[in-house]
Amino acid sequence: MITGVVNAEFEPIIPLSIRQSDGKVFTQDAIVDTGFNGWLSLPPDLIAELKLRWKRRGRAILGDGSECIFDIYQAVVDWDGTLLTIPVDEADSEPLVGMSLMEGYQLTMQVFEGGHVELRKVNPV
After folding, report:
1. pLDDT at 46 (0 to 100)
2. pLDDT in tens, 24-76
3. Of 6, 27, 5, nearest to 18 (Cα)?
4. Closest among 58, 5, 47 to 30, alpha carbons compared
5. How confident is the model at residue 116 (pLDDT cuts 50, 70, 90)?
6. Are 89 and 33 in contact, with CB atoms under 8 Å apart?
7. Which structural domain range is residue 104 located in?
């Protein structure tokens, strides 16, 4: 189970452990974003600090209908006790956890400042 908290802006925040290229673990708070169908997005400065490996370019249609081209990197994250190698989209925003990373989990949250956020693995029926 992964737990977090709702901040003053009503954003659900969870801690995320990312392995640097040298194996050291870096913990970063990230916003749970149910409108993002990717895995994880990180800002360019954090990608550089973690020395993530570049994989390819990506393309997405944003909520306003515009198209965005961005770099995609590779990272190893500790997700609920399991090490996963995932794609990371470079974005000029706060770190975002997307729906692809949360696949197979139930998200519950109390929507008030200081409210509890919980991601719990579920077994498919």
Report:
1. 94
2. 899 999 999 998 999 999 999 999 999 999 999 998 877 788 888 999 999 99
3. 27
4. 5
5. very high
6. no
7. 2-121
Q: Specify burial of residue 5 (Cβ count, 10 A radius: 0-12, 13-18, 19+).
A: middle
**Number of folded domains that form the chain:** 1
With a pLDDT cut of 70, the percent of the chain lying above it is 99
- Residue 16: count of CB within 10 angstroms of its CB: 21
Residue 113, domain CATH = 2.40.70.10
- What is residue 125's predicted lDDT score, i.e. its pLDDT? 66
C-alpha to C-alpha distance for 107 and 34, rounded to whole angstroms: 10
Residues in the chain: 125
Total Cβ atoms within 10 A of residue 125: 3
Strand partners, 36: none
Based on the number of CB atoms within 10 Å of its own CB, is 115 exposed (0-12), middle (13-18) or buried (19 or more)? middle
Q: How far is CA 92 from the centre of its chain?
A: 14
Residues β-bridged to residue 40: 88, 97
